Amino acid sequence: RDCMSLPDGTYDALVVDTTTHEDGSVAVDLTIVAGAAKGDVVTLRTANLAGDPLDLLGVPATITVAGGRPSVRFEP
User: Fold this and answer.
1) What CA–CA distance (Å, rounded) separates 37 from 46?
2) What is the pLDDT of residue 2?
């Protein structure tokens, strides 16, 4: 599912995969774990990820969509 198609709101998620692209950007696949979108897998892509993307596997996250724009916060 395209993350941009999620309605505005907050979603609990879990990182299930990461992919590093040739341009250095990283795609992070997250599955939503609660609510109406439970089970949906969304992908967010960023060029500003610090650290090894593989360290994110299995990490809980919160996706926030506001004005149709998604952001993600990874839990420590």
Assistant:
1) 22
2) 56
Distance spanning both ends of the chain, measured CA to CA: 25
CA 38 distance to own-chain centroid? 14
Q: Tell me which residue of 45, 52, 11 sits closest to 28, measured CA to CA.
A: 45
Would you call 47 helix, strand, or coil by DSSP?
coil
Cα–Cα dist 53/17, whole Å: 9
Going 76 to 34 to 63 to 30, the CA torsion angle's sign is: positive
Q: Which of 61, 69, 60 is nearest to 6 (CA)?
A: 69
Place of tokens 């109406």: 36
Q: Is the pTM of this model over 0.85?
A: yes
Assess contact for 64 and 73: CB atoms under 8 A: yes
